[in-house]
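Contributing new records

If you add data, match the layout below exactly. Sequence lines come first and carry their own label; structure lines follow with theirs. Keep one chain per record. Anything else will be rejected by the validation script.
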Amino acid sequence: MSDSSPANTRLPRGERRTQLLHAARAVFVERGYHAAAMDEIAERAGVSKPVLYQHFPGKLELYVALVDEQADSLVRRVREAIESSEDNKTRVFNTLAAYFDFVDAEGEAFRLIFESDLRSEPAARDRVERAYRECTNVICENISASTGANRAQAELLAVGLAGAAELGARHWLEQRRNVPKREAVELLAALTWRGISNFPIQDS
């Protein structure tokens, strides 16, 4: 494929990078990291391999960029959920909804975070762990500030809420959305709020 072909029309660097990431995401999701090939990613993007390598020196760097993209998306959704209201019950609901929206809106791309077949690679593992850590830290800070829970208690509650959100959202998607999304979030919110609400509100 020639770089002068219509598919390789010169794009601004940022737009080309977005195009390449979009194509790579589809290939990695379909095949997993180990079975994916740079040739196929370039073909899916409609560019030559040299163009792909101009932006990403190798398959690992491309995969890590995708993990970063998905991790940032999840953390942003959780942070916005916490900041969306001053009412803690609403915050719990919105946090759970953030996970459901993430697995629903991103198609199968959420697997890059939750089900990566490259967990043994430090570069990818570190980014996945960063996403978990940042999400639970956001939740933990809110619980600690809003209740009488100490830091250790707040961290445990945050991990429990994030875990319920992730596992619940993944199960819901695997079961082909057999419960309406809002109803699914409401069910989990009722379960988790009954536990968290037992902690007294901390006076500001």
